[in-house]
Design brief:
Blueprint: H1 2-14, E1 49-52, E2 60-68, H2 72-75, H3 86-92, E3 97-115, E4 118-135, H4 136-144, E5 153-156, E6 160-176, E7 180-196, E8 201-206, E9 214-226, E10 234-235, E11 238-239, H5 242-245, E12 258-269, E13 274-288, E14 293-304, H6 309-312, H7 315-325, E15 333-336, E16 339-342, E17 346-354, E18 359-370, E19 373-386, E20 390-399, E21 402-414, E22 417-423, E23 437-448
Length: 459
């Protein structure tokens, strides 16, 4: 039981990982890369064949880190010898909650080739995303103690933790017609690990007078599956063995975590210069069966007597007090029970205006639903094709509640190798203390075929 108690406390207080899907603002404008089609399966690369390099160092890697409600400058301390200033962080947060998102993607296989009039693609990708959103009131309570909240009742419904790891095997089909193109990607998903506390809620009430009696209510459900170890001593009345409590990477834990998803996309040329496009991505779910557990708290209500300052300074008393908090979890019921988790779906809507055959302006609106909120991003971009083998793009974006996002991307073809690099916020390298978004994508493709398969619409 103590294992679950301390696990939740650590997750809520110290975890810096959150889970919504990655949002990128640059890669979709590099249309001559295979990776652009991952944002819209109707984007067809002019190269007939493309093979992503499955090399760990040179392979196609995507890394995103997003801060919500805070930045590095908010966290860092100006005091000598200190790194974190929790009081400063507490005072400067002006939102109801704050959090951090991390995403890592690695393309193991990414191939496209022509089949008659269609462009067919296959990808095998590993994705890991983590999300935590911490209620500001709860954080103030941890940092400033309960003196600030004497005589109050604190409602902590804003604690959200969500972690997801899975592999994706996708098969895409796209076709270009005279004025439009359509594409779809059908994906088989294999879940590796999942942890969610989105339904967890708590209420903390402190008496107005000494000895400040405390009342804590806890309810909700924590769901875990895959590689996440068992958090209770008993499951369905059965004593859990030591192997189940340890983190063991075992193939038999992953075989039954299956899911399906689809990506849909389209483009349409309104006239020879103006094209509109849109896509819906990650419409799907994973059904968790292997090592799938649910931990349910049925409105636990526990009262504690108050304590003095001298008592809280006593190590033995502090330990006994923490042990008593474990009573909150005594009624937690663990069951081995499968469940479904939906992928965080997202959409894109955009338009391109070709100034010349080599110069293009673009706008892109993105949105995704995660943590019970819509999270939009808006991008304006300029793209330039230099010669036949070099592509450049630069953009300005509103994303994650910030306007200081300047993106840059380039793709260079050298022989059969196409080397690309994308950074959604180059300002991070110059002003890291105020940045909230960092997104990096790089890799190498092998490409063949003439890059001018589409007849120019502008002469």
């Amino acid at each position: 039981m103590r294992r679950l108690f301390f696990f939740l406390i650590i997750v809520i207080i110290t975890d810096t990982a959150s889970v919504y899907a990655q949002t990128e603002t640059t890669v979709s404008f590099l249309r001559r890369t295979r990776q652009a089609s991952m944002y819209n399966p109707a984007f067809i690369s002019p190269y007939r064949t493309s093979v992503g390099m499955p090399v760990p160092v040179l392979g196609n890697i995507n890394l995103n880190v997003n801060l919500r409600g805070i930045d590095i400058n908010t966290v860092l301390s100006a005091k000598s010898g200190e790194v974190l200033d929790l009081d400063k962080l507490s005072n400067e947060i002006n939102t109801n909650s704050f959090g951090v998102n991390q995403f890592l993607g690695l393309d193991i296989i990414n191939v496209q080739l022509p089949v008659k009039n269609y462009q067919v693609g296959i990808n095998l990708t590993t994705r890991v995303s983590n999300f935590v959103e911490i209620d500001k009131t709860f954080f103030d309570f941890i940092v400033k103690g309960n003196a600030t909240f004497i005589g109050q009742s604190i409602d902590l419904r804003g604690l959200m933790v969500n972690s997801l790891a899975y592999s994706e095997l996708g098969v895409s089909v796209a076709r270009e017609f005279e004025r439009f193109s359509v594409g779809a990607r059908f994906k088989y998903l294999s879940g590796a690990g999942y942890l969610s506390s989105n339904d967890l809620r708590a209420n903390y009430t402190i008496g107005a007078n000494a000895p400040f009696e405390t009342r804590v209510k806890l309810g909700g459900t924590v769901r875990a599956a895959g590689l996440v170890p068992v958090l209770l001593d008993t499951i369905d009345g059965r004593v859990v063995n030591s192997d189940e409590k340890n983190f063991n990477v075992r193939a038999d834990k992953l075989t039954d975590n299956r899911g399906y998803a689809v990506d849909l996309g389209m483009t349409y040329w309104i006239n020879p210069r103006l094209m509109v496009h849109g896509s819906i991505l990650d419409l799907g779910y994973i059904n968790w069966q292997s090592s799938a557990y649910q931990y349910k708290f049925k409105e636990v209500d526990v009262q504690f007597g108050g304590f003095s300052f001298e008592q809280i300074e006593d190590a033995d008393f502090r330990q006994r007090y923490l042990d008593s908090l474990g009573a909150l979890f005594e009624t937690a019921q663990g069951s081995k029970e499968g469940f479904n988790s939906w992928l965080p779906a997202r959409f894109t809507v955009g338009a391109d205006y070709e100034l010349t055959f080599r110069d293009r302006l673009g706008v892109l609106l993105q949105g995704q639903y995660a943590a019970e909120q819509w999270r939009p991003a808006f991008t304006m971009a300029y793209s330039r094709q230099v010669g036949t083998n070099w592509d450049l793009t630069a953009n300005y974006s509103y994303f994650n509640g910030t306007f200081n996002n300047l993106g840059f991307g380039t793709a260079v073809k050298w022989g059969a190798a196409q080397i690309y690099f994308v950074q959604d916020n180059i300002l991070f390298y110059f002003f890291p203390e105020s940045a909230r978004n960092v997104s990096l994508r790089l890799g190498v493709n092998l490409v063949w075929g003439a890059p001018n398969a589409r007849t120019p619409r502008i002469h």
